[in-house]
Amino acid sequence: MPSKVRSSVVVSFAVALFLAACGGGEQTTDQPVAVDDTLELAFFADMTTADPDVFYDIEGLAVMQSVYEGLLRYADGSTEFEGDLAESWEVSDDGLTFTFTLRDGLTFADGSPLDSEAIQASFERRTAVEQGPSYMLAGVDSYETPDPQTFVVNLKAPDAAFLHYLASAWSPKAVNPATLTENADDLAQTFLETSSAGSGPYVIEEFTRGTGYTLTRNDNYWGEEPYFSTVEIAVTPDVSSQILALESGDLDVIPHGFPLSNLSTVEGNEDLTIDEFPSLGTTSLYLNQNKGALTDVATREALMRAIDIPGLVAEVYGDTAEVPTNAYPTGLLDPSLATVDYSAGDAAAQDALSEQDISLDIVYTPDSSGVQRRLADLMRQRLAAVGVEGLPRQAQLAEVFGYREDVANAADIYVSTPAPDGAHPDTWGRIVWYTEGPLNFFNYSNPEVDAALDRGLAAVDTEAAADAYAAAGELATDDWSVVPIAYVSDVVVARADLTDLQHVPAYPWTVDVAALSR
Amino acid sequence: MLRFLAVRALGALGVLVALVTAVFVLQTAVPGDPVRASVGLNASDEVVAQERERLGLDKPLPTQYVGYLGQAVQGSFGESLRTGRDVRDDIGAFLPATIELAGFSILLAGAGGLLIGILAVVSSRFAAPARVLFVGGASVPSFLLALILIYVFYFKLSWLPLSGRTNLDSAPEGPTGLLLVDSLLHVRLDVFVDALRHLILPATALALVPAVAIGRVLRSSLIEVYRADYIRTLHAKGLTPRAVLWKHALRNALSAPLTMAGLQLGLLLGGVVIVEAIFAWPGIGLYLNQSIQFGDLRAIAGVTLVVGAGYVFVNTLVDLAQAAADPRIRL
Description:
The complex is a heterodimer. By secondary structure, chain A is α+β, with helices and mostly antiparallel strands.
């Protein structure tokens, strides 16, 4: 080929590529779907699984809540129960028997009827799969299905938190028994990892790891038809990319992780709205009471008073969080019980701190909003003012979960924002205070706290239960080992044309997708 | 040649075993309980213990290490803590996207480096801008360049898409996993164009620094070659400047840039982890990014092995290319 001809071909190809690549800024699609009929969401990370009996993360709840349903749920913006699949329910006087009456006309997404036997099969599957959320049914003695619309659960012992487990974001969900039968060899775990078999307003149409998920409307849904026919969820780990996509209109909502320091940049943007919804997420400081100066409760108290918790929270969160009123996340216990007091300590106690030559390893786990890092940094500054050295550093979650094995060599303070599984005091106390509780990172143990929590759980009388949980909260507060410092809100930034944003405090980082409209 | 390839293969094996060993040693140095992190925050101790036993993570580390090497020889990297699937299958699903991105970036870097290096020598008008580019281009980290490109070409100009590999629902999924190639094999020009539009920003973010490095070295090599007596002789014999450049000078100047290209590949693969996260590019960089946050050792080790093997493979190709370009080099 002559060189001139060859050059012309190369140049023509390059020009064609450039024009093709840059020609037009519109996002092309070969599906004739109206733009307004599709909701665009983003997740910061891949879902580990879509199996409702294995899934135990927070990112991904928007999918699970849209695809599956349990017996109960919490009402919008509330910690009060409302029926989901159950129309009504009764609890026996001894607190051992729970009788649920299912709604009329329930069906799974494939049109098959959803009855009490299907619920029983789903509950039994959760126990058999034996993954993270299986503990919710560990106290069940037996099930009964006297008729297709009545489902009875008999407990081994009273459990004051049981209804809250059933309303939890990770509650036992109804899974189509036909799917379980067709995939019986592995309890349908392989199938349900990337597919759905529920009764919710949407079904999983596509589940592509690393890329995203597509939900489409469930045409056999028994309830009100959702506004959006399709929900596209893209895995977008970078928050800056999410913000630019939101501002460009390629994303409809960022339900969590929006950097608080950037909120002011979108406040004047007429195309966007900012909503703050109360959540059960409670930023807490875990103090390693097994190490050095922190073994002394007076020192722990003096340190916490020295950092000026109200000032710290105001500086980091602005008006998106409140200083706790009591030892539990907001709404779990009467605010007048187990109250906390974070007033400044006396000068003598602060002087004593500077004389002890204290150096603290302060760790935080990464979050896209950056607040935990900011909290750790500001704590360092405030501790320095009283002669205490603080060394903030980021740690991965796996490291933090290893502390329990070797508390003597673990960090000194851990900044975290845990959220309980439900809106009951036991779902908090039993995980953060109880001996060997799953979020009891530094092996805090007070037998009196354990006993009070056990009393509360077994109490059938609500007042007796509240008294027991108040006692547990007061004892834990006096120990200054787990210090709740902020009731955080879920800050949701959305396109202004997106309406009907509904949020439940116990369902973190998500809005009710089926309730949204334009 | 065969002896060279055999030596390289043995060397690669040693490198890969060393990489896996390093990852396992790191696991002992870094405290943590990834199993508890993977089964969920509130999972009971019984569930955690059961999961640890099922995955074989309750065994001593040397036993795990030997078992892992044995599995790797058989083509399995074990079960990922995060996804619950064999890491081999995960990597198989994510790798094509990275190969496409890295391959396109290498082409861009090579072509860009060649262009910058040559222009800096043969064009007096480009000499000053080239110096600025050499300094500025080498100073901009890939993540910053990625954010600048997104802001300009996606947010301000709306010319190019922000994230992912394609917007088309019906894009072909095989046979190679490389969307550009598969779209041509399926005669889907719309997919080809869409995939190309998605590739441009992340590939440019990855390619700029290597392109500048290659261009800089090429410029120095070319200047040296142009000072040689034989080039003066070629000019005296009446060869056109273009013929002198393309037929004689460039070939003799390519050895050092090719070496630089091989070295830059390592940096480019490192940059993939960040750039894929920013552009939500579903490759092994994104997979590794999420695995690190989970402390998913098997996934990290698997990706390390594959990237290490890729690095050794491409550097072998660079050595072969050097030998082809410069007859003085013997393999």
